[in-house]
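Whiteboard transcription, Tuesday session. T.W. wrote the structure tokens on the left side:
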């Protein structure tokens, strides 16, 4: 699928590439894509649109159980991120890096409660839905699309309609090249049956999707995880390049090499949710030395920092030398041997009374005072129609390529309807056929439609991609619901018309085109209602097992009150008949099909002693159908249900997006207040300098600041100990 435009981009980027380097090395971003953004694309970044982010005394508490147990995941974090800077978050696993990014980007889990102040350009702002871009740890991508298609659809969803396709394409190609994805650009992402790109390549696709729009504020959770060291370096370099153009970039990074570490402007080091260090990355080395944990000369600084603050394996290594930390005095002589927990406490104490902490707080105050432009949603610039069209097309292509989505279902539907056809083959008009026709209709509109819940896992995947894109402001809920509804239509028409035709002609239901078309339309409407119901469930239960159990349960109840297992008038009224049978789509489908099939037929047992029974009589006195109601009215109710369920789907997404977080936040706040009342402590935030430091340590640290140290000497002493 590589085209001449891609080659053209490749040539331009090659021409711009500094000599002797690999991929666009130097500034990270290719000059071409920057030019495009500034000139050709004419995308307006008017006025002061830079993003200055500050967070002060940020504490995140999570509720762990129903009895109100809570835990502080982050405690009193203070810091800032400025345009033109690349801030790295580091810390051992579980130290709270992802939670910190979630808190800053406004995407905390529903059981988490945030206190403290987060300001964007001096004002409170909601950073989700496109104001900030966020590359999460999970790569929620559409498995059937190629890398190029994934980026291309994303571009079409967000770039302005007025931008010519050639320019969009150039931007897409240059982003592919920036992320080093040119060799796998035409490989599919991959899913359960398609072997696709590697984990590291997926990671880079996720980053490419967000840097495509050159966001003013970018969060990345472990962008280099799963990448080899060279790729990690190039990706970090690209991110740094992005920041150099006035963007604010904050990323959590695991195990950076010393070359990658050198690319960081600022470092935020966390341990157990507390700040160990925040300041210039280049000064962290000095900070550790001042705190008497100097980095040995030949050790990667980030390895050293993490080793000093990782206590996860202390218990395992209790007998090993590695679990103890050595501190040095000003003469580089070993001072004391302490546990990692003590080392962490010492470092945290040291930081909170250090100049680093004071100047960070001072800077936070300064930045927060400046009231800059409110960043509006930096998400999509494409029109609503373009978004709806692109989503429909993308979803259609995904469905057509995913064997499990509809093709397998089509095969199973045909097999099952052939089975139905052979069981009820040429059902006839004898007395016994009355029961057979009723059972056949009940099976078709009960079980065959029930099989549609098999598509649930695909709906859950769709919802994950939607959640990611929605939170990053790629498009709105309405465009998604429209795209999802229209794209599924052709497949549902295909499935229901093929299987309905097989069934109708094999069983030889009531002859006549009108009867045939009613039967397949009724089947189409019923299957579409089930799909819509399952999509609504997927919007608030994003879990395969739970969703299928809930969906099966709802359908089981609907089936029970459909009028086949118990005649409509015999169903007890208060609950089951009103309203349950009326909201059961099986009920309307069955009532309509009974009329469609039996009305006008005469049942004759070929015996002179037995009467001929008109279908109308059976409908009224056996199936208790109101024959005065037109069968088309029943079909209309079914089609109305499709619309109602789609609206319900829309509302569910809106609720899960807006109302649920509000309710959960309210519950979390109440719990926290109750907890505080119990403990008698009403102060919500952590005191700025709440962590104390002993006078001796302070004096010792001050002495350290004034003293030069020899790393070689230290290293020798460490190895001796
Ligand atoms: N919503 C939550 N409910 C309960 N516990 C939580 C919640 N969010 C975070 N935690 C806990 O807080 C701690 C920090 O989690 P977090 O994912 O932020 O760490 P991390 O530094 O990003 O880890 P890793 O590097 O392994 O991804 C973990 O112990 C985690 O279990």
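and on the right, the sequence the group agreed on:
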């Amino acid at each position: 699928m590589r085209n001449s435009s891609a080659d053209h981009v490749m040539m331009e980027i090659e021409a711009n590439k500094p000599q002797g380097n690999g991929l666009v090395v130097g500034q990270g971003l290719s000059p071409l894509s920057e030019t495009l953004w500034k000139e050709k694309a004419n995308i307006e970044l008017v006025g002061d649109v830079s993003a200055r982010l500050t967070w002060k005394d940020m504490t995140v508490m999570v509720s762990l159980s129903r009895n109100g147990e809570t835990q502080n995941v982050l405690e009193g974090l203070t810091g800032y991120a400025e345009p033109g800077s690349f801030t790295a978050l580091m810390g051992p696993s579980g130290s709270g890096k992802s939670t910190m990014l979630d808190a800053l980007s406004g995407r905390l889990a529903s059981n988490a409660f945030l206190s403290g102040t987060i300001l964007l350009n001096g004002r409170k702002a909601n950073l989700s839905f496109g104001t900030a871009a966020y590359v999460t740890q999970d790569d929620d991508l559409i498995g059937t699309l190629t890398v190029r298609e994934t980026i291309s659809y994303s571009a079409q969803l967000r770039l302005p309609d007025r931008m010519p396709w050639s320019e969009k394409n150039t931007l897409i190609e240059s982003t592919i090249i920036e992320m080093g994805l040119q060799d796998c650009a035409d490989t599919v992402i991959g899913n359960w049956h398609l072997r696709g790109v590697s984990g590291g390549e997926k990671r880079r696709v996720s980053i490419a999707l967000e840097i495509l729009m050159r966001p003013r504020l970018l969060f990345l959770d472990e962008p280099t995880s799963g990448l080899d060291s060279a790729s990690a370096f190039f990706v970090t370099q690209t991110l740094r390049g992005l920041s150099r153009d006035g963007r604010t970039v904050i990323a959590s990074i695991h195990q950076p090499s010393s070359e990658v570490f050198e690319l960081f402007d600022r470092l935020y080091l966390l341990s157990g949710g507390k700040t160990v260090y925040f300041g210039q990355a280049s000064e962290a080395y000095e900070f550790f030395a001042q705190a008497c944990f100097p980095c040995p000369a030949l050790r990667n600084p980030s390895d050293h920092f993490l080793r000093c603050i990782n206590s996860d394996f202390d218990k395992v290594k209790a007998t090993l030398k590695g679990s103890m930390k050595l501190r040095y005095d000003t003469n580089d002589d070993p001072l004391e041997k302490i546990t990692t927990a003590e080392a962490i406490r010492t470092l945290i104490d040291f930081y909170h009374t250090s100049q680093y902490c004071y100047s960070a707080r001072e800077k936070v105050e300064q930045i927060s005072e400046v009231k800059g432009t409110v960043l509006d949603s930096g998400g999509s610039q494409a029109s609503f129609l373009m978004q709806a069209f692109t989503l429909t097309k993308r979803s259609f292509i995904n469905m057509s390529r995913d064997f499990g989505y509809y093709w397998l279902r089509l095969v199973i539907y045909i097999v099952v309807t052939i089975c139905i056809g052979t069981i009820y083959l040429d059902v006839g008009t004898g007395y016994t056929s009355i029961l057979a026709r009723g059972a056949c209709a009940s099976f078709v509109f009960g079980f065959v439609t029930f099989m549609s819940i098999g598509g649930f896992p695909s709906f859950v995947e769709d919802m994950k991609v939607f959640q990611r894109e929605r939170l990053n402001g790629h498009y709105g809920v309405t465009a998604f619901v429209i795209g999802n509804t229209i794209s599924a239509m052709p497949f549902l028409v295909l499935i229901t018309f093929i299987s309905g035709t097989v069934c109708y002609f094999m069983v030889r239901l009531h002859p006549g085109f009108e009867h045939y078309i009613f039967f397949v339309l009724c089947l189409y409407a019923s299957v579409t209602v089930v799909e819509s119901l399952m999509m609504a469930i997927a919007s608030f239960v994003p879990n395969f097992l739970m969703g299928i159990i809930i969906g099966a349960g709802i359908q089981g109840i609907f089936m029970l009150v459909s009028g086949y297992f118990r005649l409509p008038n015999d169903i007890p009224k208060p609950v089951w008949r009103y309203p349950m049978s009326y909201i059961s789509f099986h009920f309307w489908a069955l009532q309509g099909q009974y009329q469609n099939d039996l009305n006008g037929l005469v049942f004759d047992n070929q015996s002179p002693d037995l009467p001929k029974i008109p279908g109308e009589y059976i409908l009224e006195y056996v199936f208790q159908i109101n024959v005065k109601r037109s069968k088309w009215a029943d079909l209309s109710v079914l089609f109305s249900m499709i619309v109602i369920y789609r609206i319900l789907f829309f509302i569910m997404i809106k609720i899960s997006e807006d109302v649920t977080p509000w309710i959960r936040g309210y519950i979390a706040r109440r719990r926290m207040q109750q907890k505080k009342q119990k403990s008698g402590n009403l102060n919500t935030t952590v005191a700025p300098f709440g962590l104390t430091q002993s006078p001796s340590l302070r004096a010792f640290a001050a002495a350290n600041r004034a003293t030069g140290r020899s790393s070689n000497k230290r290293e020798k002493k460490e190895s001796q100990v």
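Someone added at the bottom: Confidence is low (pLDDT under 50) at residues 1-29, 37-48, 681-721.
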